[in-house]
Amino acid sequence: MYAVIKTGGKQYKVVIGEKLKVEQITADVDTQIVLEEVLMVVDGEVVSVGAPLVAGAKVTATVVSHGRGEKVRIFKMRRRKHYQKRQGHRQNFTEIRIDAIVK
């Protein structure tokens, strides 16, 4: 059984017991969260596809940790103009563990 959820503007395929890093969610560590934007649920041969969301479906997850991702380096340059700009960015994330998928 798996589901496709939407959180933080991105879509993720999730399975029970899986850990994944998503955009930062404002919740404390070791708390249960409910993700209600479920786009599709597959249970064996039964496929439920929403238009755009599956009615009544939800995914419960536990917040494992918060952190920051790898640094992305941005370098801008204009040739022959003596213009160079260096910048870096680290995106915040929340690591969650999928506990249950309810159709």
From TrEMBL:
Signal peptide start-end: none
Highest taxon, organism lineage: Bacteria
Annotated GO CC locations: cytoplasm; ribonucleoprotein complex; ribosome
SUPFAM superfamilies: L21p-like
UniProt GO BP: translation
Family matches, as Pfam families: Ribosomal_L21p
Record's keyword terms, sorted: Ribonucleoprotein, Ribosomal protein, RNA-binding, rRNA-binding
Keyword Ribonucleoprotein among record annotations: yes
One term of GO molecular function: structural constituent of ribosome
HAMAP family according to UniProt: Ribosomal_bL21
Record text on subunit structure and interactions: Part of the 50S ribosomal subunit. Contacts protein L20.
Protein family per UniProt: Belongs to the bacterial ribosomal protein bL21 family.
Task of the protein: This protein binds to 23S rRNA in the presence of protein L20.
Record's protein name: Large ribosomal subunit protein bL21
